[in-house]
């Protein structure tokens, strides 16, 4: 999706925190999502945040939303090798479509 | 629920042949989406349905592509004739479409190779 931008690659050491950033354009987006895609698999919904929230925590995942700057981030604490995947940011549009970013490939190194 | 089911998982076909991809959405989901994923273009929305009716097909590349949803539990994406540039992973996704449930559930995809 042209309207959602993400950096393409992130390399992180096992045990460190990963932070994946995303910017979006539609200020009326109701929900913002993070999806994970492992090799050879479909996209799996990781977490989402409602637009009236600033932060959401779910175990090792923390989502931060800055509506003023239209900036969304996903922090993964204590990154493990199983976290190696492509992570997609997505925003909801008025007509029930989701607009996806290009995906950030996260590589966890030992 | 078994999730969104796509078939086949892999398809290899010769240029010019017809290809049909199949999808069974999650029961009760009234939105169905077809996406194509390539390295060059990322995830592209091809078409989506609401209550079996096509709502937006602006992403369908050209007339060689067609999609149908004859009932709430089945959809097909057909390419005729297929070309090598159609090689990609095709995903189907379904959604409940409510305010609380805009998130999609994706199938495992069909990897199409046109030689």
Descriptive account of the structure:
The complex is a heterodimer of chains A (110) and B (115). Chain A is mostly beta strands and 110 residues long. Helices cover 0% and strands 55% of the residues of chain A. In chain A, a hairpin with a 2-residue loop joins strand 6 and strand 7. With 115 residues, chain B is an all-beta fold. Chain B has strands spanning 5-7, 10-13, 19-24, 31-38, 42-50, 53-56, 65-71, 74-79, 88-95, 105-106, 110-114. In chain B, the strands form two sheets. In chain B, strands 2, 4, 5, 6, 9, 10 and 11 form a seven-stranded mixed beta sheet that branches. In chain B, strands 1-3-8-7 form a four-stranded antiparallel beta sheet, with no helix packed on it. The termini of chain B are far apart. Chains A and B meet through strand 4 and strand 5 of A and strand 5, strand 9 and strand 10 of B.
Please describe the topology of this protein.
The complex is a heterodimer of chains A (110) and B (115).
Chain A: E1 5-6, E2 9-13, E3 18-23, E4 31-37, E5 43-50, E6 55-58, E7 61-66, E8 71-76, E9 85-92, E10 98-100, E11 104-109
Parallel strand pairs in A: 2-11
Antiparallel strand pairs in A: 1-3, 3-8, 4-5, 4-9, 6-7, 7-8, 9-10, 9-11
Chain B: E1 5-7, E2 10-13, E3 19-24, E4 31-38, E5 42-50, E6 53-56, E7 65-71, E8 74-79, E9 88-95, E10 105-106, E11 110-114
Parallel strand pairs in B: 2-11
Antiparallel strand pairs in B: 1-3, 3-8, 4-5, 4-9, 5-6, 7-8, 9-10, 9-11
Structural class of chain A: mainly beta
- Helix count of chain B equals 0
Radius of gyration of chain A: 13 Å
N to C succession of SSEs of chain B: EEEEEEEEEEE
Largest sheet geometry of chain A: 6 strands, mixed
Distance between the termini of chain A: 32 Å
Distance from first to last alpha carbon of chain B: 36 Å
Low-confidence stretches of chain A: none
Shape call of chain B:
globular
* N-to-C SSE string of chain A, H for helix and E for strand: EEEEEEEEEEE
Query: So what's the overall shape of chain A?
Result: globular
Which structural category do the helix and sheet elements of chain B fall into? mainly beta
Assign a percent range to the helix content of chain B: under 10%
Largest interface: A-B, 20 and 23 residues
Catalogue the unreliable spans of chain B: none
pLDDT averaged over residues of chain A: 91
| Tally of strands of chain A | 11
